[in-house]
Sequence to fold (409 residues):
Amino acid sequence: MNPASTAAGSVQPLPERPGQTVSAGDSGCPYLVVRDPDVVRDILHRPTDFSPANALVAVTPLAGPALRVLQRVHFALPPVLASNDTDTHSGIRKVVAGFFTPATVAAMEPRIRELAQEAARNAADQLDATGQVDLVQAVAAFPPAVVMLELLGLPVRDLTDLKRWGLDSMELFWGWPGEDRQLDLAHSAADFYVWLRHLVAESRNAPGRNLFKSLAEHGLSTPEICSLGYFLLIAGQETTTQLISTTLFRLLDGTGPVGWKDAASEAGSRTMVRDVLATESSVPTWRRVAAHDTNAGGIPIPAGAEILLELSGNQVTAPAEPENLPIPAQAARRGQSTGYGLVFGSGIHRCLGAKLAELEAAVIVQEVAMAVPEAHLQEYQPDWIRLLSFQAPRTVTVANSPRDRAHPS
Ligand code: HEM
Fold:
């Protein structure tokens, strides 16, 4: 990818137009925003009319210094999977899907539970020892990364770097960083890319089965494998971390349909994960671009129009918030659910990790709710990750009781 040629411009407030299915960016928003679930689904099922080519495009134009940092390491994201609108997509998808079959994911449940119990125990120990614990770092951050690497046959290492690189790259490509911030983020993305290229080289000759070796056998070049790895090593774990973070936060702030005690049951945790997916998923929006002059929801759409599809939540009916919020802050508001059916996309690019993400989230939430039954939220207004297509609280800090909350040690 040449990030310079792919920028979509900055995002302005969404026009508030209840009932409208497709809203043009007449307030400076560079996207046609589609909220009606039927129209969203229709667009996702017409990949020749609505291409995913802009899926990984930088939302904010990258300035020269950041671009040079990326170019120095030959950073490139050629279309391979999520942004691939050619007929090579289905073969590549099949190779990746082979690592996430329903049987493989189901067989992983005991390992997920083992990791969840270990993390939950550590959280409980930290809570006892210090009087408080951030559940994002203690339980949400690492188990999804370990599970993903194990499923892909890749070495489980450098997890702290991986988590930081993932968040930085999300902000670089889906956020609104100024020039100085872009430079920091570009250095991080470049480090990630170099690490990835070494891992790809190592994996090609490693014993046993791993994703990168399988992709090389399928005929993909090293830049293509790196491109897929760059997307998957972020999408395959940070989105789940964010889903878990929001689920824990809503359980503890008491605004969900399930209470903390009920989340300790399998049914309770599953219900709550589904509710968060439907109302404020970690991936609330996704993009498409019109491949030629076409139409959707009864309105004409010109070739090249960038489209933002709402997958989760309903901002129109959300409670009052300042009108000048950018899209991600609006998307973070808890409105009426638009339903669960679109949260993992739909059609030929539908998420390959949907079952895994839900399973991981439900198991981890359940184990934490069991391990720290007296936990109370300490910070009701934490800082949130708010990007065009990703959202979650950065921290979910709890204390053991309202008394500890008032007097944290
Ligand atoms: C809560 C967690 C997750 C959410 C909300 C989510 C959501 C999404 C969405 C909205 C898409 C775009 C679908 C489309 O264009 O129609 C997608 C694509 C994808 N996701 Fe996920 N995802 C999550 C977790 C995961 C995990 C855990 C993995 C793998 C381990 C994964 C792998 C993928 C892949 C490979 C694609 C691209 C598929 C293709 O283009 O053919 N995702 N995801």
